[in-house]
Amino acid sequence: MTDSSRLKSTVYVAGLDNSVNDKILADTFLPFGEIVVVTIPKPEIPSSTEPHRGFGYIEFEIQGDAKEAIDNMDQSELFGRVIKVAAAKPQKDSNDGLGSKTAVWESENYLAKHAVSEEDRIATGSGRGELEAIVEDPMQGLEGLDVVGPQPG
């Protein structure tokens, strides 16, 4: 099964109670079709007392079964909590966009999108030499202002 078809047959389940485990989640969604795997991510912080992060993924054998599960289980109640069931989205690269651990301008995607070659800079007339010639010295004309008090007339 390709990654694309696996993603289409995977559902995201949010709002899980702490007492829900892999087996309970699998048993809950079993009426909709053959389940390949159930995953409930554990907390990232080792000192956490929570059994999981409150969401999970269920991969079905057939894409249509995943759609049936979404249609029938979204906004339903499981262990006293309303759960959200939706199609799973691809995992974002941890080095892209907000929440990444590196500055946005250091990523390859940013450079590929925003980098301007020196040839392009010269062609558009925004080379360094011209830019420096346009900017005047901000201290120009302030030579006589170092004397305090009224100026003799």
Order of helices and strands: HEHEEHEEEHHH
> Nearest-angstrom radius of gyration?
30 Å
Hey, roughly how much beta strand do the residues contain? 15-25%
Given helix and strand content, the structural type is alpha+beta
Helical fraction equals 25-40%
Morphology: elongated
Description:
The chain is α+β, with helices and mostly antiparallel strands and 153 residues long. 29% of the residues lie in helices and 16% in strands. It has a 4-stranded antiparallel beta sheet. A two-stranded antiparallel sheet has the order 4-5.
Key traits:
153 residues; alpha+beta; four-stranded antiparallel beta sheet; two-stranded antiparallel ribbon; 6 strands; elongated
Topology record:
Elements: H1 3-8, E1 10-14, H2 22-29, E2 35-39, E3 55-60, H3 63-73, E4 77-78, E5 81-82, E6 84-87, H4 108-114, H5 118-123, H6 128-134
